[in-house]
Structures are given as C-alpha cells and as structure tokens.
C-alpha cells in the first residue's frame, strides 16, 4: 500500500518509516501516521533537522553524509535507507534496550511482503538506451524531474477503459560525465532511440515499437511553447526521422506529432533521457544480464566482452546499447535489436524479487530515473508518474512485445523507407489492442467468429461485383480501395463511385439475398466483421452491384476493419520475458 492510497501522501516521508524492532533486531517499514516530514535531500549542504516520529527518533534523508556502514543500532551488514543511527546507550556502542513505556510491535511479516507493501505495486518500466520511466510517490523526487510543456500532450489521467501511448525518446546528447567522448559531443540532442510504448485498454498486453532514426519521412509543422509565447516551427519533407527533435529548435512535442503522422496513433505523453539514464539505472538495480552469441570487441562503442552471459552496468551497459558494427548486419536496425534485448532484460530485473525486496535498490532506482528523466507537464509530478506506474505494472513481461517498424532499404543504403504493406497492418493491430504475443489465439478466435457468423459458400473473387463509396474522412479512400481490390485481389467487377451521400461511422456492405456468396467473399478479402454486412430484402437484377461504403473505421486499403489477428510476415519482434543472445 503506498502513502497516497492511505490518504496522507503529503504527511509521510520515507526517511522516517524505517524503525528498529527490538524483538527481532530487524528494521521494519512503519506505515502508521507520523508528523509531517522534511523533504529528503542528497549530498552535502545545510541539514534541516527531521521532525521526531511517534517514538522520539529523528530520521535522516537517504544519502546523508556521515551515515557510515556499521553504525550503532543497525543490524550487522544491513543498510537502512534514510535511518539515522540511534544514540549509543553504553560504552560498547550498543543500542539502548526498549523502555518499559514503549509499546511493542506485532511480529513482522516477511521481508519480501514488507517490501511489496512499501512499493504498493507502483513500478513503471524504464525503457530505452536512454529512455526511462520511474516509480515513486515521494515529494523529494519532484525536484529531480525536468518538464517540457508541449502541445498535444495529455493531462496525466489514466482511465481504465482507455489505452495508453507513451513515446520514449533516447537522445544522442553527450551531456554528463564521461559522455563527451562518444561521437558528436556538440549534438543538440536528436531522437536517436525512439519507442512507441502502447498499453492495451485492459492492461493485459503492451507493444513497444522501435522507430529507426534513419527513416526518411515528413516532419509536420509543430507548435512549441516558449517563455516568449507559442512558436510554430516549419516542417520538412523527406528527411531523417531523428531530426524531429533538436533540429531547428524542435522539442519532443514535434517528435510526438511526427510519430502520429507516421502511425496514425495519438501519443498521450513522452519521456526522454540521455546517455546517463542507461548508466545510472543499470547501476541502481545492480546490473543487467545480457547474452552474447560471439566475442565482441567494438572500437566504436568500446564494448569488449567474450561470448556468453554477462551482468553489465554503468559505462559497460551504455557501450552495449550503442553497439551496432559488431552485431547483425552492422547497421542501426541491428543496434535496435540489441537494445530491445537489453530492455527486455532490464524489465525482468526491475520486476524481480531481488529488486522489489530491496528498499535501497528501489530508492536508488527512483533517484536515478527521476534525475535522468524529462517528461511533459501532464505527467510532470511524481503522483502522476505513480499513477502511470500502477497502470504499466499490471502488464506481465511475457505479454510485452518489442517490435521494429517495418522498413526497406533506401537507394542510398544509408537510410530506410517505410514498408507500408507491412506497417499498416501492424499499426492497425496496435490501434485495436491486438497483442503480438497472443496472435495465434486471436487469429483462431477471429476465424471461428467469422465462420459462425458468415457460414455459407463463397463466390470467386472474379465474380464479386461491388460499387465502392467513400463515407470516411480519408480523401481518395474509394479509389485506393478499388485499386487494391482489382490489382491485389482480382475483384475486377468493381467501380469507384466517389463520395457517399453522407459520412458513416462504420463501414457497411449492403447486398441482396442472391448476392450473399459475393458478400461473404468480399468480407473475407477486406476483413469486414459480420456486423458490417447488411442484407436487403429484394434480389439483385442483372449486373446490379453490392454497395460498399467506407466509414470512419477505414484504416487503409488492405487493412482489415476489425484489425488483423496475425502480425505481418517478417516483422522483427521479441518478447520481454525471453533472453536472446546478440549475434
């Protein structure tokens, strides 16, 4: 149970919650009410005396200087976050025995159970070679966060019946100790690593879609907010995706808008971090296990490890996620794969009992993440990040899938282009909350449903006669659908009838009783749900066609209205619960 859920988050300071149980000699987390506390602080500087708790002790903030291991009152070898030593009660430095007037505490629960009570399940995934999400409810961490007010971001509310789309951005800005030696030390910070993290409405699954930095795309005009007022930065056609951030003063809001333009998916919030995030976060959790299928000695990334499994942190972790020339095909797409393997391992480590049952690790993790993190103002408070963490923590790692945006090589061999035939069905899957880890079951369920609702014979595609109307807001939708039907599916007896008399919310296919076999065939080809089929009462005469009216649910020619149940062939993906060795 976290402090907020107990109704007094503003009155609880974690530094005052660890108390010694004289019966067991262990430190335990106290959740009963205490007086308002001062905010924790790190490092040197003037100290503000912490108010006394109910049992008359003072509490010190985590990381307070002068708190050394082995201090009086501490169980041997155990570090207690935020707990100041008791005053020595005798010459040997032992603790004072409990006084007769002090009330006894109940027998403590297991250490793991206490840690879970403390975390309250508030755990957000930290994703990216440079991009991270954090868990914490304490006011101390608010001062660590950097925020940017961007146009189009949400307000931080997370409703149970709505999906969540977070854009995770890792910049190539070389700020921070030891980072100037990596590549361009003068970089303004481009979108070097970008992941669209989609969490389904029911929180059963999530998809993390990596977008290559060298993707050639159009960057739209974007509005930025400055102290001098709002400013519109002009867009650029056919340029690298990574220029959606940093170039010409573009902020993360511009990257959000660019991703929406590419995918059609509305982004709710962004989280951004630089190289320091990888170093500090991996150190905070005590290292992350990775696997190499071969020896790697990369002079560019400075990664030098033999084949096998390794636990890496700090500079070595950063070197791992920057490696590309020594793995795969040696390009950015290979670097994305190794990053996804790393992030999957990081998620497993953060969800492990080793991390969840260690209050010092949890504190250091929250401290490192919030210092490395820049977010939009909609989630620029720890309480809002806590809410986000609660939503993300509901997803089992086995149902988190990392995938890469389908692309093809450009003629210059240095950049890539969107593979629309594979990308559009993938976008539709995300929009329809279809899990990439459950596609086989979804595919069978969809097939069974369609077969039950659309029982009966099918006509040949060449015998299907249909007039296509555009009742959607997508310009040219009828023409592109007609072209796809004729060229890709062999429905030659089809015609483009232009705009429908009125806009429709959903796509419909109207047909006569004697055209049912044609309707079933067209429904199969286009992925129409049975609810889209509307049978009339009179038989068609002669060459009278069926009427297909595209509605607002139309996503593109060839994209099933119901959302594809099967991922397109060739889409690179990996599940977060599986370890993959870099090759």
In words, what does this structure look like?
The protein has 583 residues and is of the alpha/beta class. 24% of the residues lie in helices and 20% in strands.
Gyration radius, in Å: 28 Å
Low-confidence stretches: 1-16, 31-104, 106-137
The class by helix and strand makeup works out as alpha/beta
Mean pLDDT: 75
The percent range for strand residues is 15-25%
Which sheet architecture does the biggest sheet show? 8 strands, mixed
In DSSP terms, counting alpha (H) and pi (I) runs of 4 or more, how many helices? 12
- Widest sheet, order of strands: 3-16-11-4-5-6-17-25
**Terminus-to-terminus distance:** 43 Å
Approximate shape: elongated
Counting DSSP E segments of at least 2 residues, the number of strands comes to 25
The helix content, as a percent range, equals 10-25%
Features of the shown structure:
25 strands, elongated
Q: What does the secondary structure layout of this molecule look like, with pairings?
A:
Elements: E1 18-20, E2 27-29, H1 111-119, E3 146-148, E4 164-171, E5 191-199, E6 206-211, E7 216-219, E8 222-226, E9 229-233, E10 236-240, H2 252-263, E11 269-273, H3 275-284, E12 288-292, E13 296-298, E14 303-305, E15 308-312, H4 314-322, H5 332-351, H6 353-356, H7 359-372, E16 374-376, H8 382-392, E17 400-404, E18 407-409, E19 416-418, H9 420-431, H10 439-453, E20 465-470, H11 477-488, E21 493-499, E22 508-511, H12 516-526, E23 533-535, E24 546-550, E25 573-575
Parallel strand pairs: 3-16, 4-11, 6-17, 20-21, 20-24, 22-23
Antiparallel strand pairs: 1-2, 4-5, 5-6, 7-10, 8-9, 11-16, 12-15, 13-14, 17-25, 18-19, 22-24
Helix pairs in contact: 3-4, 3-7
């Amino acid at each position: 149970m976290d402090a907020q859920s107990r109704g007094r988050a503003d009155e609880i300071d974690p530094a005052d919650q660890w108390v010694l149980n004289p019966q067991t000699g262990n430190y335990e987390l106290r959740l009963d009410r205490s007086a308002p506390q001062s905010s924790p602080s790190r490092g040197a500087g003037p100290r503000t005396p912490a108010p006394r708790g109910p049992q008359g002790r003072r509490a010190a903030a985590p990381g307070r200087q002068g708190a050394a291991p082995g201090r009086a009152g501490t169980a041997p070898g155990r570090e207690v976050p935020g707990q100041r030593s008791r005053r020595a009660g005798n010459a040997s430095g032992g603790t004072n025995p409990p006084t007769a007037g002090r009330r006894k505490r109940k027998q403590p629960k297991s250490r793991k159970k206490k840690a879970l009570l403390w975390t309250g399940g508030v755990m957000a995934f930290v994703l990216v070679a440079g991009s991270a999400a954090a868990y914490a409810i304490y006011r101390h961490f608010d001062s660590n966060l950097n925020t940017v007010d961007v146009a189009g971001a949400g307000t931080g509310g997370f409703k149970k019946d709505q999906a969540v789309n977070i854009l995770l951005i890792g910049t190539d800005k070389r700020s921070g100790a030891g980072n100037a030696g990596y590549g361009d030390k003068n970089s303004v910070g481009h979108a070097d690593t970008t992941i669209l993290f989609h969490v389904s409405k029911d929180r059963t699954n999530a998809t993390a879609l990596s977008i290559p930095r060298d993707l050639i795309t159009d960057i739209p005009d974007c509005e930025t907010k400055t102290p001098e007022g709002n400013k519109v930065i002009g867009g650029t056609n056919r340029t690298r995706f990574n220029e959606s951030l940093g170039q010409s003063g573009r902020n993360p809001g511009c990257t959000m808008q660019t991703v929406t333009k590419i995918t059609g998916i509305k982004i709710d919030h962004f989280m951004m971090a630089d190289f320091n995030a990888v170093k500090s976060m991996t150190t905070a959790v005590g290292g992350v296990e990775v696997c190499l299928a071969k020896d790697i000695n990369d002079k560019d990334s400075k990664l030098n490890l033999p084949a096998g499994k390794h636990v890496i942190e700090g500079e070595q972790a950063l070197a791992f996620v920057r490696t590309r020339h020594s793995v795969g095909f040696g390009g950015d797409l290979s670097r994305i794969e190794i990053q996804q393997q790393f992030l999957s391992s990081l998620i497993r480590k953060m969800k492990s009992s080793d991390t969840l049952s260690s209050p010092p690790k949890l504190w250091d993790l929250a401290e490192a993440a919030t210092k490395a993190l820049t977010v939009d103002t909609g989630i620029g408070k720890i309480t809002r990040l806590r809410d986000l963490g609660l939503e993300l923590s509901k997803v089992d790692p086995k149902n988190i899938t990392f995938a890469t945006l389908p692309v093809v090589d450009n003629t210059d061999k240095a950049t890539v282009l969107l593979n629309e035939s594979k990308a559009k069905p993938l976008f539709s899957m995300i929009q329809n909350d279809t899990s990439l880890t459950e596609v086989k079951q979804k595919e069978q369920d969809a097939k069974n449903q369609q077969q039950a609702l659309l029982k009966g014979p099918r006509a040949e595609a060449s015998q299907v006669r249909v007039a296509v109307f555009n009742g959607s807001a997508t310009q040219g939708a009828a023409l592109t659908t007609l072209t796809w039907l004729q060229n890709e599916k062999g429905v030659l007896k089809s015609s483009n009838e232009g705009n429908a008399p009125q806009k429709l919310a959903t796509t419909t296919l109207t047909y006569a009783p004697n055209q049912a076999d044609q309707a079933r065939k067209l429904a199969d080809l286009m992925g129409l749900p049975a609810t889209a089929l509307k049978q009339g009462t009179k038989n068609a005469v002669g060459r009278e066609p069926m009427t297909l009216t595209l509605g607002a649910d139309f996503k593109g020619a060839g994209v099933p209205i119901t959302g594809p149940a099967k991922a397109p062939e060739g889409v690179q993906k990996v599940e977060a619960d599986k370890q993959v060795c870099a090759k």
